[in-house]
Design a protein that fits this description.
The complex is a heterodimer.
Chain A lengths: L3 E8 L10 E8 L6 H11 L19 E4 L2 E4 L11 E5 L5 E4 L2 E3 H11 L21 H11 L6 H4 L2 H5 L6 H12 L7 H8 L13 H5 L6 H28 L1
Parallel strand pairs in A: 1-5
Antiparallel strand pairs in A: 1-2, 3-4, 3-5, 6-7
Chain B lengths: L2 E9 L3 H12 L4 E5 L15 E2 L13 H11 L6 H21 L9 E7 L2 E7 L20 E2 L5 H15 L3 E4 L1 E8 L4 E8 L5 E11 L20 H7 L6 E2 L4 E8 L9 H4 L3 E3 L7 H4 L9 H16 L9 E4 L5 H7 L1 H11 L8 E10 L2 E3 L12 E3 L4 E2 L11 H21 L8 H20 L7 H15 L3 E2 L1 H18 L13 H25 L8 E2 L5 E2 L5 E6 L8 E6 L18 E2 L14 H4 L1
Parallel strand pairs in B: 1-2, 1-10, 2-7, 10-17, 16-18, 19-20, 21-24
Antiparallel strand pairs in B: 3-6, 4-5, 8-9, 9-10, 11-16, 11-22, 12-15, 13-14, 14-15, 22-23
The chains are: A alpha+beta, B alpha/beta.
Chain lengths: 251, 622
């Protein structure tokens, strides 16, 4: 049952002038219930303490450890070696800026994304500490939570053909976030305001419909549905906008 | 060297740190958060079950109010908390939870009409009131008189943290992620910011601030078996201890959560038991109903964890390659409930165990979970001893948890303390000026730079930091765990002192160039060893059993001698912390008594103030 695992791991330390991008091979004996979290930490502790990678919660919740595992973006912490062949190739996520080895800068990317889509409730209400909360149906709350489950791991961006070609493409994570706010009755933005954010070539109209995002999302978010919904809504908004413009001209 | 100046420096950008930042930024103060990970990856995101606030909207929470929440919290703490703080907390929690709703948290809501629920394995019926439809609902949690834990499925920490970071983005608060504060800049009286290390490049930076907040979470990673994220190694707590001035409170107060999964110690939420899940032994039989007839599976965490270990010691655990464990059974809750209210649990069991909790039982065993101890502050969040230094959340010993925290009170504390401490910091900053003394800045940078240089040159020795860490984790796990005794604790202190001596001889095996993980750990580890010694020495000295601190050689809760908080400081050059004590509460709104669960052997206090016979002196109310 015990296999000798061969790991091919991308190595590059940008801060070290002697470092050149290359693949490095490590060997480990597989143990029971081994995950890539266990394997990578053993490699670091036993073989090469300079190896850079990111883990945090190691429970599939925080989204830190996304990487290319035999070419496929996924969370390393919940990937069991027994589900992989004996030769495992690990590469950093594409699209995001490399920090070193398997570590990439998702923080900067996602902060910018959250600023772009204005990822917050837009409301003219002010909070009244003495008042009872605004009511909401439980179904609405659950529908929002369904989309709120995104952990910003970056897998959908790394798996996106368009994002790999075009660095300013917003990606499924941004579209899902917009869909989350459209679903939320507390957000008072109009369709036109959402349109101004995503109704562009970098936005929903740039999506090629390849759906790598839907295939690989480690949290199984219904991304395809959100892309479809958003494309429809934004398409109508564009048509209406055009129509209003024509009416304005003829009037 | 790059030097950045700001009004408020928040070290840590989890829920507590960001809530403070939001408050200060909303009041117009320039705020910078440092975080060793992107803020949304902070360990707050892993909190699953919920946040306690006495809204009393759901029918099983009817009649709830801050008084009941206060009483539950004090009992949960085993009368180890500061009752003024617990009161302040319970009063503010409902406002804080509603404010999070205003900012966008999709709290689960009351659905009117008839529904069924499980308690202690049996099915019951409840009818939710139509007039409460759409208000924030709650689930049951351990040690509470009412259903009080507000939730979004079992991703409550996640939705809270994303919502809070949305506010941070909206307000334009600067976050420097992958930056680790390595030394506070102070002159023995006033804190002026921190020296920090960029974890992208390894470069040092100076942050000068009028106010500095430590909100770096707990120190669970001092233990071998912990539910905590790998980043929870007490790095902010170390900063405070290393001042030699600021004390750490009750470091021996370490909570074990009953349901870490075996073997990975990943948490499955208390919501499993709150929603009616049961604990079972090797024979498939329940046992908590026999040990705790009143609260059963929903006694407080310290009590349930002890009974589980007791049951395993009776030979009734399930044998496995990873040691004996017990079962958590949620099968009877049904597929719909698990797939809507316990989604993370389902995912964790399937992904990490290959167990389907809808049809199979979950292997569980208590694992280290929460650090009640931390940077000692007053009720405003101001650290003892240094002006301009504050702490909040798990990193702080504020101290509303005493010797045991209730489930659902940690998320609540992050938001509530963040709100209160944020307001106090903003008040403090109004009109406050500080002199940034160049000598103090230079000294702090030099101190750190020299450590780095010595480690990289490897002149001190060849001790392997990964090996030392493993040995330390084993010592705490095996000798300062759920059950403690004087002999083992003495061995722990002795063993940890040897490890601490060896930290002076750590040498890197790699180059240490750039964002080198070995260097980062080598820099942090001597501080971790000092924290471990604070935990062990505090536990050895506390000759009683209270909350999670269970001494087999001192089984009584000793209210006569131990209604006090341990304060640990570390003088430079010492190999042990200096322990002093203070009364754990000034006011005794709820005099010490029986918790209503757990074994209750009490040596009573004779202090008339504690017993509620006399009122405290007016100046002590202040």
């Amino acid at each position: 049952m015990e296999r000798a695992l061969k790991f091919n791991i991308f190595r590059y330390n940008a801060m070290d002038p002697r470092s050149v991008p290359q693949m490095q091979t490590f060997y480990l004996d597989e143990t029971d219930s081994m995950t890539l979290f266990i394997a990578l930490n053993r490699i670091r502790e036993e073989q090469d303490p300079s190896l850079q990678f990111d883990f945090c919660c190691r429970a599939g919740i925080c989204g830190s450890c996304a990487m290319l595992i035999n070419g496929r973006p996924d969370l390393a912490c919940h990937t069991k070696t027994k589900d992989l062949p004996a030769e495992i190739t690990l590469m950093p996520l594409p699209v995001f800026k490399l920090i070193g080895d398997l570590s990439v800068d998702t923080g900067t990317w996602f902060r910018a994304m959250n600023e772009t889509v204005q990822s917050w409730i837009h409301t003219d209400r002010t909070f009244d500490p003495k008042a009872t909360e605004e009511r909401m149906s439980n179904e609405e709350a659950e529908a929002i939570y369904e989309l709120e489950r995104c952990i910003e791991c970056g897998c959908c961006v790394a798996a996106c053909g368009k994002a790999n070609m075009r660095p300013d493409f917003m990606g499924a994570v941004a579209f899902n976030r917009i869909a989350r706010f459209i679903t939320d009755p507390r957000d008072k933005r109009t369709m036109k305001e959402y349109f101004d954010v995503v109704g562009t070539e970098e936005g929903i109209f740039g999506c090629l419909g390849l759906l790598g995002c839907e295939d690989i999302c480690p949290k199984h978010l219904p991304l395809q549905d959100q892309l479809g919904m958003l494309r429809r809504k934004m398409g109508w908004t564009a048509v209406r906008h055009l129509f209003d413009g024509l009416l304005g001209k003829t009037a | 060297m790059e030097t950045i100046t700001t009004d408020l420096l928040c070290i840590g950008a989890g829920l507590a740190g960001e809530r403070v930042a939001v408050e200060a930024a909303a009041r117009g103060f320039e705020t910078i958060c440092l975080s060793i990970v992107p803020p949304r990856r902070s360990h707050s995101s892993a909190a699953q079950g919920g946040m306690q606030a006495s809204l009393g909207n759901c029918i099983k929470g009817e009649g709830d109010n801050p008084d009941v929440h206060f009483a539950d919290t004090v009992k949960g703490s085993d009368w180890g908390c500061d009752q003024e703080v617990a009161r302040l907390f319970a009063e503010t929690a409902p406002i804080a939870v509603r404010e999070m709703a205003h900012w966008g948290v999709p709290w689960n809501r009351v659905v009117p009409g008839k529904s069924t629920y499980f308690k202690a394995g049996k099915e019951f019926e409840k009818i939710e009131l139509p007039e409460k439809e759409g208000l924030i609902t709650a689930r049951d949690f351990g040690g509470t008189a009412k259903w009080r834990t507000c939730y979004t499925s079992d991703g409550t920490g996640h939705t809270l943290l994303f919502t809070m970071d949305n506010e941070v983005v909206r307000l334009g608060v600067t976050v420097h992620d992958r930056v680790e504060a390595v030394r506070l800049i102070h002159d023995g009286e006033t804190c002026m910011g921190a020296v920090a290390r960029c974890l992208r490049t390894g470069a040092l930076r100076v942050y000068l601030a009028k106010a500095t907040l430590i909100a770096t979470g707990g120190y669970g990673r001092l233990y071998r078996e912990t539910t905590n994220a790998v980043i929870n190694d007490g790095s902010g707590t170390i900063l405070a201890l290393d001042t030699g001035i600021v004390p750490l409170g009750n470091m021996e107060a370490v909570q074990f959560h009953p349901t870490g999964i075996v073997p990975t110690n990943i948490l499955v939420t208390e919501g499993c038991r709150g929603d009616g899940g049961t604990l079972k032994d090797v024979n498939g039989e329940r046992f908590m109903d026999k040990y705790e007839p009143a609260k059963q599976e929903l006694a407080s965490r310290d009590v349930v964890s002890r009974w589980m270990m007791h049951h395993i010691r009776q030979g009734l655990g399930v044998k496995s390659a990873y040691g004996d464990h017990l079962w958590l059974d949620i099968r009877h809750l049904g597929e719909h409930h698990i797939k809507t209210k316990l989604r993370e649990v389902e995912e964790i069991c399937n992904s990490f165990l290959g167990v389907d909790p809808i049809t199979q039982m979950i292997p569980v065993r208590p694992a280290q979970h929460y650090s009640m101890g931390g940077v000692r502050t007053n009720k405003d969040g101001a650290a003892y001893g240094l002006k301009g230094l504050f702490a909040a959340g798990e990193a702080a010993c504020w101290d509303m948890h005493g010797l045991n925290r209730l489930g659902g009170n940690s998320l609540a504390e992050t938001i509530v303390a963040g709100k209160i401490v944020g307001e106090k910091i903003a008040d403090f900053l109004e009109g406050y000026e500080v002199h940034f003394k160049s000598a103090c800045i230079r000294e702090a940078v030099k101190h750190h730079q020299e450590r780095e240089d010595r480690l990289i040159r490897g002149k001190d020795g060849r001790e392997n930091v990964f090996v030392l860490r493993t040995v330390m984790q084993d010592v705490l796990m095996d000798k300062v765990g759920i059950f403690r005794n004087g002999e083992d604790l003495q061995k722990a202190v002795d063993g940890l002192q040897i490890i601490y001596e060896r930290t002076a001889k750590i040498g890197l095996r790699s180059s240490g160039v750039g964002a080198n993980p070995e260097l980062a750990l080598a820099l942090r580890f001597p501080g971790m060893a000092r924290l471990a010694l604070c935990v062990a020495a505090g536990a050895l000295a506390r000759t009683e059993s209270r909350g999670c601190h269970a001494r087999e050689d001192y089984p009584e809760r000793n209210d006569r001698d131990w209604l006090k908080r341990t304060l640990a400081t570390w003088k430079e050059g010492d190999s042990l912390p200096t322990l002093t004590y203070e009364p754990n509460s000034k006011v005794w709104e709820l005099p010490p008594g029986d918790r209503g669960y757990g074994v209750c052997k009490i040596i009573s206090s004779e202090d008339p103030v504690v017993c509620g016979i006399e009122k405290p002196l007016p100046d002590s109310i202040e």
